Amino acid sequence: MKEKDVKFQAAEILSKEGISAEVINLRSIRPLDRATINASVRKTNRLVTLEEGFPQHGVGAEICMSVVEDSFEYLDAPVERIAGADVPMPYAANLERMAVPQVEDIVRAAKRACYRAVPMAATA
């Protein structure tokens, strides 16, 4: 049996703690499904992006920009971006686990998004 994807494992853990995580598994990034992403932000008022690639110049940054352009006023907390480590992708399984996001990383970021708020100065 194939192990469950880390994002769904994290969503299950969060659910057990009373946090409902909406997981959007993008089928493509071109075209980027901006409508679905922005509808989710408008519903949840939060955004956590997850990708295995480098933290800079990735699809997570493009998703964030889409939300800034279309749904910024709906965000109740800063965006949380989860990405792979800024290192060459290792071949050894133990090193790969250290280079790509793990369940714990996702859960931690989602909790930060839930319990942080936009500073008052930003809303004035």
From TrEMBL:
Source species of the chain: Oryza sativa subsp. indica
GO molecular function: pyruvate dehydrogenase (acetyl-transferring) activity
Protein's job: The pyruvate dehydrogenase complex catalyzes the overall conversion of pyruvate to acetyl-CoA and CO2.
Listed cofactors: thiamine diphosphate
Transketolase C-terminal domain ranges (all copies): 9-106
Highest rank taxon of the organism: Eukaryota
Name of this chain's protein: Pyruvate dehydrogenase E1 component subunit beta
Record key words, sorted: Oxidoreductase, Pyruvate, Thiamine pyrophosphate, Transit peptide
Reactions it catalyzes: N(6)-[(R)-lipoyl]-L-lysyl-[protein] + pyruvate + H(+) = N(6)-[(R)-S(8)-acetyldihydrolipoyl]-L-lysyl-[protein] + CO2
Enzyme Commission number(s) from the entry: 1.2.4.1
Keyword ATP-binding found: no
Any one of the GO BP annotations: pyruvate decarboxylation to acetyl-CoA
Cross-referenced Pfam families: Transketolase_C
Keyword Transit peptide: yes
